[in-house]
Amino acid sequence: MKFTLAWLKEHLDTKASVAEIVDTLTRIGLEVEEVFDPATALSTFRVAQVLKCEKHPNADKLQVCEVNTGTERLQVVCGAPNARAGLKGVFAPVGSHIPGLDLTLTKAKIRGVESSGMLLSERELELSDEHTGIIELPADAKVGSPAAKALGLDDADHRGLAPSGAARASGAPRCRR
């Protein structure tokens, strides 16, 4: 079972830190296998704005987008139907690991056009199964800022806690962190 710190705090009246909660759960026999911090996991992704989109010269369902990442303007080939000028989304620079694809991005030519990064869907970030288009961030999202912040995943309450599989299977208390 996985649950967020925010969910746990709905059921507990505590101001304890994540480490204190993990220690207490372990002490009472609920071994915590993992504490997942989405802000850390998403740290390479930034808010970017699509400045312009043009039809890809060699593919009907692709667009060539000019993207402002906050530090530079890059060309990104995108297949999402909702890609359009003005849209703010989550940008993955070359070298980023895309968890939902288990892929590390490289600069690539897609149907003959260079692409220097990727605009991401929720599924590519493992936030949901949604993949019909790229994530659309609010208009007030700051270009170049961390995507986790724009997605509301930058505070400790979004950390996930996962009890150990061994502890679940055996039902026996275990003391390991």
Verbal overview:
This protein is α+β, with helices and mostly antiparallel strands and about 180 residues long. It folds into two domains: about 5-35 and about 160-170, no CATH class; about 40-150, OB fold (Dihydrolipoamide Acetyltransferase, E2P), CATH 2.40.50.140. The protein is about 20% helix and about 30% strand. The chain is built from five helices and twelve strands. It has helices spanning about 5-10, 20-25, 40, 145-150, 165-170; strands at about 5, 30-35, 45-55, 65-70, 75-80, 90, 95-100, 105, 110, 115, 120, 160-165. A hairpin with a 7-residue loop joins β3 and β4 (about 65-70).
For the termini, the CA-CA separation is 16 Å
What's the shape? elongated
The CATH class label of the largest domain is Mainly Beta
Number of domains: 2
